[in-house]
Amino acid sequence: MSVTRRGVVKGGAAGALSIALAGSLDGIFQTSAGADTGEAFGYGPLIPDPKGILDLPKGFSYKVFSVEGDPISDGVVVPGHHDGMATFPVRGSGRPGHGRHGRGHGRRPHTLLVRNHEQSNNGTPAVGPRRLTYDPAANGGTTTLEVDRDGNLLSQYVSLAGTATNCAGGRTPWGTWLTCEETEGFDGETKSHGWVFEVDPYGRRTEPVPLTALGRFSHEAVAVDPHTNVAYLTEDASGPFGLFYRFRPRAHRGGYHCYRAGGKLEALKVPGVPDLSLVTEPGTRLPARWVDIPDRYAKQTSIREQFEDGEITRSQKLEGAWWGHGKAYFVASYSRTAEGAAGDHAGQVWTYDPRRNEVQLQLIFKPGGRFDGPDNITVSPYGGGVILAEDGDGEQYLVGTTREDKPFAMARNALNDSEFTGVTFSPDGRVLFFNRQSDPGATFAVTGPWHRLRG
C-alpha cells in the first residue's frame, strides 16, 4: 500500500515546502552522501573549516562554547549529551536566577538558551541543587546559558537535574521550556520517568515536578499553538512504534504551570493510514482524527500498547517538532521495513494544520541520498523554510530549505560523526544556535548573511 495525492484531500497548491521538493527529490536527495554539489541556491557550497570543526558557507562564522566537562562552579561541570534547545530574550541585567532584573548589559540584547542533556544514569551528570533535582539517580537535566548578541557566553548553570534522557522539548507561548524525557524508566531510578518538565529560563519558578497531564511515554518534542495553548507531542518508541499526540489544556489562559490544571490527551488517527511511512508523495493532505487515551499515566501498559493496530496511526522514529506558520511541524527520522515499518524512507517532515484538522507530508528523504535522518527542526525566520538537524549515517549536516523550497546543506560536522541537535534561532533572528551532541558535546553560535538566501 502506498498513499499519494490521488484520491485524498488536497488543496489547490501543495503548500509551503511541497511543490518544489516534489520535483527535486531525485536530484537532491539521491546524490552521493559525501558529495558537495556546490549549490547555486541556499547560501552556496560549504567551505572546509581549517580547524576541522564545522564547515559553513562563505561569509558565515561560528563560535563554540559550553563544551562537556567545562567548569561551571565548584564541583559542577557542563553535563554531557547536548540535545534539544530553545532561546529566550533576556529580561534585564541580573543573571538568570541570580537577583533582580534591570535594563540589560550595556542595553544590548542578550539571549538565554535552555539546553537539554540526553542521559539517564550515564554520562557527565547534570548536578543541581536539591530544590531543582527530581531523582538523584538520574543524570539528565537542563542547563541555562546567557550569551550576548554576538554569541559570546556570559554565564551558565544547571537549571534542572535528576531527570532522564532529556532529548527534545518545546518552547511555550508564555516563555518557558518544556523538557521531555525520552524514556519510560531505567535501572536504579527512585521515581517514575517518562514525563515532561517545565523550566523557567529566568530561573525563578522552576520546580522538579512532572507535568503528568501530558502523559507518560517516551517523549521527544513538543510544539505549542500560541493561539490555543494546545500542545502537539511526538513519541520515539518501538515494539510497537510511537504515536503523535495532542494535549488540550483545561486552563483557558496560558502561563507557567497552566498544564498542571489537566486537560485531554489524544492520539492521532489518519483514517486508512496505519503507518505514516505509507505516504510517499510530498503535498499529500490527509484528514486527522483524534482518539482518547485510556490511561495517560501508563500505570500498567505503555500508552502506545493500549491500542490495536488500526485504531491509531503509528510512525517509526517520531522526533523533532516546532510551531510555525500556524502549523505544528513534526519529523520522522527514518522508516525501515526490515525493522517492522510499512515503508522505507530516510526522513519525513509533516505538518498538522489545526484549522483544517489535517496532516500534510511536506518533504521526504529517499534512502541512499545525500541527506538522511532529520531529527530536531526549527522554522527559519528567513524565507519561511525550515532547518533540520541530522542524526543519520555517516556525515552529519544541518539541512535548510529556501524560499522556493529547495534543500541545501547549511553546515557539516567536520570533527566527527556525532549528530547535530537543538537547532534554534535567537529571538532577533541574528544567531543560529545548535549543538554537537557528543565526543564532546558542544554548543555553536553561527552568524552571517542570513538575508542573502538564494532560491
Topology of this structure?
Layout lengths: L17 H12 L16 E2 L6 E4 L3 E5 L5 E3 L2 E2 L4 E8 L21 E7 L22 E8 L5 E11 L2 E6 L5 E5 L14 E4 L19 E6 L6 E5 L8 E6 L13 E7 L15 E3 L1 E4 L25 E7 L2 E6 L15 E6 L4 E7 L9 E6 L6 E5 L6 E5 L5 E7 L6 E6 L6 E5 L5 E6 L8
Antiparallel strand pairs: 1-2, 2-26, 3-29, 4-5, 6-7, 7-8, 8-9, 10-11, 11-12, 13-14, 14-15, 15-16, 16-18, 17-22, 19-20, 20-21, 21-22, 23-24, 24-25, 25-26, 27-28, 28-29
What key phrases describe this protein's structure?
455 residues; mainly beta; six-stranded antiparallel beta sheet; five-stranded antiparallel beta sheet; 36% strand
What would you say this structure looks like, in words?
The protein is 3% helix and 36% strand. The protein has one helix and 29 strands. It has one helix at 18-29, and strands at 46-47, 54-57, 61-65, 71-73, 76-77, 82-89, 111-117, 140-147, 153-163, 166-171, 177-181, 196-199, 219-224, 231-235, 244-249, 263-269, 285-287, 289-292, 318-324, 327-332, 348-353, 358-364, 374-379, 386-390, 397-401, 407-413, 420-425, 432-436, 442-447. The strands form seven sheets. The chain has a six-stranded antiparallel beta sheet, with no helix packed on it. A five-stranded antiparallel beta sheet has the order 13-14-15-16-18, with no helix packed on it. A five-stranded antiparallel beta sheet has the order 17-22-21-20-19. Strand 10 and strand 11 (177-181) form a beta hairpin. The longest helix is centred in the first third of the chain and has 12 residues, at 18-29. The two termini are 35 Å apart.
